[in-house]
Amino acid sequence: TQRDEEKRYNALFGSRVRFFVLLLVLFCLTAIWSNILTLNFVVICMAPIENGTVEQNADRYSYSNSEFQWLISIVAIAALATNGVVVYLIDKIGIRTVFTGLGILSALVTMCIPMAIRQGYYFLLAARFLQGVSFAANFPVIGAFCAKWAYFKQVGLLVSVLVAYVQLSPTITMSVSGPLCQSSLGWPSVFYSHAVATLFLFVFYGIFYRNSPQKHPFVGSIEKAKIAIGKTTVVDKTSRRAVPYLAILKTPAVYAVWIASIANFGAVNLMLAFTPIYFSRVLGISITSTGFSAALPPLAQFVVKVVAGWISDRVKFCSETNKLRLFNSLAMIPCGGFFVVLGFLGTENPKLNMLAMGAAAGFLGAATGGFFKAGPMISKQYSHVVTGAFSLMLTTMMLLIPIIVNAVLDGEMGIERWQKVFLGTAALMWINNAIFCVFVRAEPCAWTETGVSPCATVAKDLENSHEKSPEQSKQIPEKF
Questions:
Q1: What's this model's pTM, rounded to 2 decimal places?
Q2: Could you tell me if 194 and 110 are in contact, meaning their C-beta atoms sit under 8 angstroms apart?
Q3: Residues 6 or more apart from 95 whose CB is under 8 A from it?
Q4: Rounded CA gap, 372 and 366, in Å?
Q5: C-alpha span between 366 and 255 (Å, rounded)
Q6: How does DSSP classify residue 96?
Q7: Which residues, 6+ apart, have CB-to-CB distance to 209 below 8 Å?
């Protein structure tokens, strides 16, 4: 019977299936971003050896600053061009089908990149474009997942874990790429290993994931009711209300979230795209050490993101709006301060530069309790639209940061040029954080109120009965 099946599934996962699904989505997001980041490191280890022999430089390739800039920018262009289509498809058919298809596309394209490199620059450019198409779904997926699967008291934790893929990806990729490049398999092994891992993850995701916990065979009735508390849902797809795009675009709090994301992703793209170059060419660190050193800042940020998201759900001494301001300021202000420190540090002691970069990245992780959490809070069932726009901000910064940084550096690697880069980044973070603090709100916007479905009503009744009845409180533990 269905009751017997539910007992068997609960014996496997208990009432915490959502956390298993959370980790699966996190690893899939990480895989797509990691596939894009592979080239950032491989361009260093596959570059021709100066004064090397013909045999030593066989199967080695290099690109000019302009060519490399386009290899980064084409990913952003592709993601920008397809973001609207991806958001529309997710709204219509859900993230299970869309995300699975794009994940498999990313795996296949990454597998073919060594061949594209050997065939010529324009083949590689085309492959990078397809990687950008697959990336367009990442932030809409986060928004859609949180809208369907997040228990309202754990929104901060779930958001912080999922958006941490931006840091988890370089932590993994930078750590493994150095040893793989130095292995007998050489630089192509970086792409092959990432492609195989991505394919495995997305095949499993396509089999296991469901667009709603109500449809998942492993989710028991207690967990379904818990997740449904406070959610506005619809009985069927035909009764779904059209997305209120105009109302969303008229909301100052939405713009506050997006403006804060610009500062965050500007700093993130600077660290992801230029940290390996800064460490190897400015500080003079070896290739293998560069891989591990470049992984430290995103690792620090990953840890802080998860911890900050968990803490933000438990802070009680101030209102929700002030919590958003507090955590966003804890991220942006110190991070900008350490960029200022980097601007005035010399190159005599590279360890100090590495510590300052790690500290800047670490503090930035607290933004999960700020604008990252604010997006789903104010948009609820339309989170895939508001949070999905983070893809636009991330890819826009991915497009602009290389152009701006290369224009400032102008082909030089002197510390004076880098000072301008770091100070400009600090100014962007402080200004955008001030705007966020003025206009952000924690309450759901008026355009999210579309009525309450039977599912949500049942969940509310269960919550009320849980508060009144000691026996039913055992059925829905507060901390499960």
A1: 0.72
A2: yes
A3: 137, 140, 141, 144, 145, 209, 211
A4: 10
A5: 20
A6: H
A7: 21, 24, 25, 95, 96, 99, 100
Tokens of 107: 């795996």
Residue type, 70: W
Per-residue pLDDT tens, the chain, 480 aa: give them. Answer: 666 666 666 656 667 788 888 899 999 999 999 999 888 878 878 877 776 666 666 777 888 878 888 888 898 889 888 888 888 888 888 889 999 999 999 999 999 999 999 998 999 999 999 999 999 888 888 878 877 887 766 666 777 788 788 878 888 887 888 788 877 788 888 999 999 999 999 999 999 998 888 888 887 777 777 777 766 554 445 445 677 888 888 889 999 999 999 999 899 888 877 777 777 777 776 655 555 566 666 677 677 777 776 687 777 788 888 989 999 999 999 999 999 998 888 777 778 888 888 888 888 888 888 888 888 888 877 777 787 778 778 878 888 888 888 888 877 767 788 888 899 999 999 999 999 999 998 888 888 775 443 333 333 444 443 444 333 434 444 444
Residue at 78: amino acid letter:
A
In one letter, which amino acid is 248? I
